Amino acid sequence: MFNISGLFGKSPFAPLQSHMKKVALCMEKLVSVFEILPDSEMDKIERLVIELSKLEHEADLTKNDIRNHLPKSLFLPIDRAHFLEILSVQDSIADKAEEVGILLTLRPLEKFGNFQKEIQAFFAKNIDVFLNAKRIIEEIDELLESAFGGIEAEKVKTMVEQTAYLEYEAQKMQQKLLKQLFTQGETLSTPAFYMWMRLVEEVGTMSHLSERLANRIRMLLELK
Amino acid sequence: MEVETVFTILVLCVGFYMAWNIGANDVSNAMGTSVGSGALTLKGAVVLAAILEFSGAFFVGSNVSETMQRGLIDTDMFMTEPIVLIVGMCSALLGTSLWLQIASYFGWPVSTTHAIVGAILGFGGMVGGMEAIQWGETLWILLSWVISPFFSAIISFLVFTILQRKILYAMNPSEATKKLMPLLVFIVFSTFTLSLIFNGLQNLHISFTFGEAVLVALLVGLITGAITYFIMRRVRLPELESHPPSRYTPQTVVSLDKAMKHLQRVQVASFDETHAKVSALLDEVKQLSQKLRQETSFSERTSEYRSVEKMFVYLQILSACFVAFAHGANDVANAIGPVAAVLDIIKNGVVSEFAPIPPWLLAFGGVGIVIGLSTWGWRVIETIGKKITELTPTRGFCAEFGAATTILIASKLGLPISTTHCLVGAVLGIGLARGMRALNLSMLRDIALSWIITIPSSAAMSIILFYIFKAIFIGS
Questions:
Q1: Which fold has domain A12-218?
Q2: What is the phi-psi region of residue B272: left when phi exceeds 0, alpha when psi lies from -120 to 50, beta otherwise?
Q3: Is B109 helix (H, G, I), strand (E, B) or coil?
Q4: How far is the C-alpha of B116 from the C-alpha of B92, rounded, in Å?
Q5: Distance from A47 to chain B by nearest Cα, in Å?
Q6: How far is C-alpha B232 from the geometric centre of its chain's CA atoms?
Q7: Is residue B241's pLDDT more than 70?
Q8: Number of Cβ pairs closer than 8 Å across A and B?
Q9: Position with higher pLDDT, B463 vs B2
Q10: pTM
Q11: Residue ranges of the domains in chain A?
């Protein structure tokens, strides 16, 4: 017969969150790459990065799956284009993690003062920004519950502001690192210099993307 | 055996089968959402539905049944040969049952209401010609099919928007719920009582004028609202107990944030001494805001939505009962309207000018629905309940209130409409108010198909059966 159960489509927000989990797995893998970085054992690093690539591929598959199965109906609580934008920014974080990993397999990092330590701290800050963005995505359930308004929206707004602040701090660190690289980098060979530079820039992009993701969610809120 | 006896038995059996069918399939719409959101257990849902379906059918069912009996076709046309009307109504009922059986076998979206209306119109138009159909009334009914989903969509949209503004978007959702709950209970009970007692209790020989009915309804609403108010005052919210109660509300924090925003503007636009002063002020306000945020345990308050939903569970049970009542009132006519017409002719031997639906027949239809519900309907309720978990109690309440109000108004006007379509419209209304995640709009196509397919098919079915019966019982 004819009843109202046919009315409900599958919500795309749960898949969005599971995609975020895959992205987070990529980031975790990258963290373990950075942990063994001081030992500079290239084959260990390479093995981890291959695993990282696999995880990134899985995230890609989830992303494509969501794109292919996004309900055609009009009634998503948010705009379709907006939803796809969130998905694509989220996925680009995983892409970036893979890029950083591959960069690290290209050649062993040369010693350069205490740069090793500082870039570890810089990386940790970027992971912080990412974790903040991840927490915001995890709030989507509650946001839907409150129809994107009220105290929940205020809470998410605060979280977004916090993410933005952390990203600002990360940018400061990046600036400092780059300056150090340019003032003291004359002792380095050209490939080593370029390697360090790329690493600083690529890692910095991760916090950049995380902040953008947070701001995309910010745009959904109905604030008074 | 006489032809009359044969038809009496036949029409009662088919009428009972129709009522069974309605109980088995359509009641699930009313209760499925409540079971799905965990507001009711399956057993509780079946018992409540049985009671309310029956009382809806018994007390308010007569209006629509009378429309079915003589509103669609001009029974005066059959004055001279009442047997034709008997055979016609029987074939309409049987045709509808057959058509529903076929449609549910193939999984087509059909509505009992549309099928029976189509069947009656079909045989009426075929036998009596175009002038036998009461076009005025028929057009009204057709129009109501289109209007009713929109109407319930508008009501549920409005109710949900109010809830959104007052509760979901509030800084202290559970406090706001406590305040709003008595008002909502008042509205639900007043509407419910008004529909029950105004023109509703003839079967018990109690009648009210409209003014009296409104007064009584308001009184009932006030009493239940007051009871709710006192219950709500006693409700303790278990959340946030780990924190000392704060003298500040989250609203204060938001206000402070606004002040900060304005100060920032001044800071950007000012120079020298003023700039320094404003910067100092701003720092101070920032610190204050952070302190207040911690004190009001700002970020932990989002767990309040869970307690809001918990409170709304009770309201949703209420609205589900409302839908079950309205459904009984409207859909019992599909089964017993034609039966009433046939029995009336058989009893009096002529097509009478005015024959009220006998109360026992309404009860008969009600019992049929209840048996259908208890033998088969609970399965459908269970299935739907599992499928619809997206409908949280706040949303479920709005959808059910919108649909039930529409159905009851239609029942009062004697218009047979589809309960399912009203509910679909109501859920879409909530979707429009940004309350729903992903809605499957193919349902709208199914509704339109149901309008287009069902009427001609069941009409054809009843015409064929009419000629078969005529050949058997009346001769050429």
A1: Methane Monooxygenase Hydroxylase; Chain G, domain 1 (1.20.58)
A2: left
A3: coil
A4: 7
A5: 41
A6: 26
A7: no
A8: 143
A9: B463
A10: 0.84
A11: 12-218
